[in-house]
Amino acid sequence: DKAEIRQSADHALENDPSQPIRQLLVAGGIDLQERKRLLVQGANALIVLPGGPGTFDEMWEMACARNLGMSQLPMVCVNIDNYYEPFRQMLERAWKDKLVKLRPHDIIHFASSAEEAVRWCEDAQHREAPFVELKKRKEALRSQSVLGSPIVETTPKRRISLVAKSLSWLSSFGHQEQTDEMQAR
C-alpha cells in the first residue's frame, strides 16, 4: 500500500536522520508515457536492474533524453552477468559511427553490482555531467500526455524539472498499440 510506503519513509527519517531515505514507488498511470514520467519525477538518479521490454523502453528513453540534452539525471545499469552488454555495445557502436552526441559512459554508466550502482549514484551527485544544449521551440512542448492526462509541472531544486515534459514529448510514437496492450491485461 502506498500509504504504508510513505509512512515507513517518514518513520525512517524521524528515527535516524543520518540514514538515507529509500522509497519504493509503484508507478501506475493511464499510459506508458505517464508511467515513465512518474518513475523519474523527483528522482536524483536512475538505477536500471535487469528486466524485460518495459525496462528496455524506460532505459532507452532516458538514454535518448540524456543524449539529446533533455536530462542530466544520472543513470546506471546493474550489469549482472553482462545482462546489459549488448546495450553497452550498441552505444559504443553508435559513438564510433558518430550517431550519438555524448560518449556512451556520459549517457549511462554500467555497474557490476547493485552496491556499486548505489555508490556511483551517490558520487554522481557531486560531479557535473556533460550536457548537450537542445534548442526547442516553446510551442512544441506539451502540457498533456498523449492520451490527454495533464502533466503536472514541478520545479524541484534538482536539475530535472524538464524531464517530465520531455519524456511525454519523446514518447508519442506507437502509443495506441501500447494502450491496447495495457487494456488487454
From TrEMBL:
Which InterPro entries does this chain map to?
A: LOG_fam (IPR031100)
A GO biological process this protein is involved in? cytokinin biosynthetic process
One of the entry's Gene Ontology molecular-function terms is: hydrolase activity, hydrolyzing N-glycosyl compounds
State the source organism's domain of life.
Eukaryota
GO CC list? cytosol
Q: Which SUPFAM superfamilies has this protein been placed in?
A: MCP/YpsA-like
Please identify the protein, giving its name as recorded.
Answer: Cytokinin riboside 5'-monophosphate phosphoribohydrolase
Organism for this UniProt entry: Entomoneis paludosa
Upper classification of the source organism reads: Eukaryota, Sar, Stramenopiles, Ochrophyta, Bacillariophyta
